[in-house]
Amino acid sequence: MIIRGIEKFTIDIHRKPTYTDKIPEDLCYPKEQKMAAIRYFYNRMNKYQLLPKNLEKGNNILQQIPHNNGYDVSAAKNLSYMKNANMEKKDKDNKKIHWVKLTYIGKETTAVTKAFRNTNVNITFSTNNTISNLLTARHHTTKGKYDNNGIYQLTCPTCSKKYIGQTGRSFKIRFQEHFRDFKHGNSKSSFVQHLLDNGHSTGPIEDIIETIHVTNKGQIMGTLEKFTSSMKRNSTIKSMVN
What we know:
This protein is an alpha/beta fold and 242 residues long. The chain has three domains: 2-80; 93-128, no CATH class; 134-241, GIY-YIG endonuclease (3-Layer(aba) Sandwich). Helices cover 42% and strands 17% of the residues. Strands 7-5-6-8 form a four-stranded mixed beta sheet, sandwiched between helices. Helix 2 (31-47) packs antiparallel against helix 3 and helix 8 runs parallel beside helix 9 (190-198).
């Protein structure tokens, strides 16, 4: 953050409210990663040439973060002076370091890493429970393309409008139900109602249906349907839970 004073420009650190103070102690992440996040704030603050008053203000904020998030305050006070002794030792060691990635599931993962403490194997952590993984389309390869269940999209072959729906049955069976309703004039879904009201035609499954997300029936499926519908709101026929 650049501040224009009377005689010169000064700098300070802008801290986003949604980011700076949001590192709860009970998050299912390794303690090392949570401490590293706080230590990063100290490193950033000390790297810039801040005015004494801004430096003091920054120190007060960073000392308050561990307290607000439930950490051991006495241990957190030393974060600004912490040095990684293990890294210093490795810099002097000529052994080749191998990195291994483990999916973090809690204390059990930390216990496993202790077995490699005195070896040339370093452990880094990852998590599968991310927004990207939850909301990105996944297609199972063990079945046919239309044999899974989840979120699907139907496209009107006449006007290209879209219909977003969800199904706990297979995509193939759900498409057959839509086709049967259209054939017999039963407007049980918004998609069929659109076809009947506008005199539009239908077509084969390959031209009509697109699988968006493969997931089991439940709360996640409902969330994914709402997310997909909101992303394509301007071009979709009203979505309907099936």
